[in-house]
Amino acid sequence: MRTRVAAMRRVEAGAELKARREEQGLTLREVAYRIDYNPGMLSMWERGLRSMDTWEAALYLGACVTPMREALRIIDLLQPPSDLYWVRPYFDQPTDPMKSLIIQENLAKAMVSYDPTRIPGLHQTEDYARAMYKDEPHYTKEQIDYHVKTRLDRQKLLQRQDSPQAVFFIHEHALQTTVGTSQVMHEQIHYLMLSATLPHCSIRVVPEASPAGRSRRFPFRIMEFPEPRPAMAYAEVDTAKLLIEDRSAVEAYYCLVSQLEQSALNEGQSQDWLVRLADEYERMRE
């Protein structure tokens, strides 16, 4: 069990190493020369394909002129705290909460997402995201600004030519709950309708009266990666975000997806539903 969790954290650590090297404008060969290692070994580290000791990570980061605080944060990724789950608290420093998810999203080839209470972050407008965070009493203005910017930057994922194939199940409650004003919601629903036209993006509405709609659950996502890496799940609870790679736990989320597929409107029906909802928000603005 520990091996799988360590692999998940190792992938993120490798992505962090690569990002730090590229920020310094260094090639693999240049870093390898500085620390007297084979470039092939460094490449495997960056792709999360080979484990490294903490002292090796420190050596690599030193070659990339990494500030001490940043280096310690990355090195900590090589020391998993749990056999089953990798937990990130919501109330940490504003630079931490979404970093792990963003890295995993950008490595994924496919994903399935379910949101019972809000529009998915990858489809939120700036006004919607800002209004959503303002409703949370524990966020400072600095944290709100950071999270909104991060959320908008994440959306570049869906604009890439190699964007992952993505299915977003959104509960009717999330779409009918006014966040901000009717104007904000009108623009948000239109933005969601445009997102649904992307060739790699499917948006499906989960009706309140359906079996899956009646049993609202916490939001979750399944991300699939190129072989041989196994799929992983991401889930949110009130005070933490969890990255889960335990096979039996991920299979349980696949069972939930099967239920959602049977309960949700198809893509065409969902688009028609969104058009009607946009009209309702339009009337509320008048």
Keywords:
52% helix, elongated, 286 residues, alpha/beta, disordered N terminus, 13 helices, seven-stranded mixed beta sheet
Instruction: List low-confidence stretches.
Output: 1-5, 89-95
Q: How are helices and strands ordered from N to C?
A: HHHHHEHEHHEHHEHEEEHH
Record the strand order, biggest sheet.
1-7-6-5-2-3-4
Structural class: alpha/beta
Number of helices: 13
Number of strands: 7
Rg from C-alpha positions?
20 Å
What percent of the residues sit in helical stretches (DSSP H or I)?
40-55%
Q: Determine the strand fraction and express it as a percent band.
A: 5-15%
- Report the principal-axis shape: elongated
Describe, in plain words, how this protein is organized in 3D.
This protein has 13 helices and seven strands. It is of the alpha/beta class and 286 residues long. The chain has helices spanning 2-23, 28-35, 39-46, 54-63, 68-76, 99-107, 126-134, 141-154, 172-176, 182-195, 211-214, 247-263, 267-285; strands at residues 85-89, 110-115, 165-171, 201-206, 220-224, 232-236, 240-244. Strands 1-7-6-5-2-3-4 form a seven-stranded mixed β-sheet, sandwiched between helices. Helix 10 runs antiparallel to helix 13. Residues 1-5 and 89-95 have low confidence and may be disordered. The chain is 52% helix and 14% strand. It is elongated and about 65 Å long.
